[in-house]
Amino acid sequence: MEFTKKKKVRFGMKKVIMMCLFLCLFTISGQDVLAKNGKYKEEIEEISIDLEKVVYDSETGQLTVGDRVLGDYPTYAEAHLGLDNDIKSILPTPSDDDRVRVTDTTADPYSGIVHLKMYYKDVNNDIYNGYCTGAMIDANSVLTAGHCLYDHKDNLGWAYAVTVSPGVDENTNHFSTEYAATISVASQWESSGSTNHDWGVITLSSNVDSGVKIFDLHDNVLIAQNINLTGYPNTTPDATSKTMWTADGPVYDLNLYTIEYKVDATSGQSGSPVYDSQNRIVAIHNGGVTGEPMNIARKMSSWLKSYLESNHIS
After folding, report:
1. Which residues does the annotation mark as catalytic?
2. How far apart are CA 217 and CA 76, in angstroms?
């Protein structure tokens, strides 16, 4: 009887412990559900908006969207704070900046990395620019960071226009500049601004030129694995704008949604592809980790990969 009683007690305690573990794991994220195989499935939802068509006026040479001219405007922070307008990445000093300028932006994989210029307007209808990087994942689909398309930092909301320039180098456009027809972000990014869901997709009004690289996606990245980060920083070692820079280094940490690394990056590289030795995108660069000398990226989980392939890749 004593043996039976002890067995019952142990079984009861085991049930309690298992329940506690289940509840703790389930609260990792309100956006996770338990899949049939016992692993956690990311509940991916997306919100999209269609943008007004960009119109070219042959007489004035101007590009317009509605009554707004697409030109050069200050960033919101430049206009109000005298600062750059982007989530801050690690800011390397000139002496320890490991980034190298890409001199041939038509080469593989660099031709598939795009310079993004976003246009926002505030409640007073004042216009501001933002700058990011993206990567081609289909002939008319660009993968980037959610905060490049929907701004929480300065409460500007959705961009109303985005220009996409593949493989541009300073003032040399090796390929045609395209324009966003639709922009999409994770609904969790639009509602909460969570870094866990900081990804977005631009659908172009027409396909990019045939020589532009189309990146593959890969849903497996490991701690200590070497990764590459390439994009268009606003701050570069030689202070030249609209130039592409690249660096590489190991992954230091990863979790359900993100990976962290010390690869150098600055403002403007948000949305840059983080890719492996086979030029497959394993994450999307977001910015710096608050209070740590580390950069962070949204990981290409199996669920995100599957979602993108089903909805944005033909």
Report:
1. 147, 270
2. 33
Give residue 92's pLDDT. 54
Higher-scoring residue by pLDDT: 84, 4: 84
Protein fold of 214-311:
Thrombin, subunit H (2.40.10)
Candidate CATH numbers 3.30.160.70, 3.40.190.10, 2.40.10.10, 2.40.160.10; the one for domain 46-87+106-204: 2.40.10.10
Q: What is the pTM of this model?
A: 0.84
Instruction: Answer yes or no: is pLDDT of 298 > 80.
Output: yes
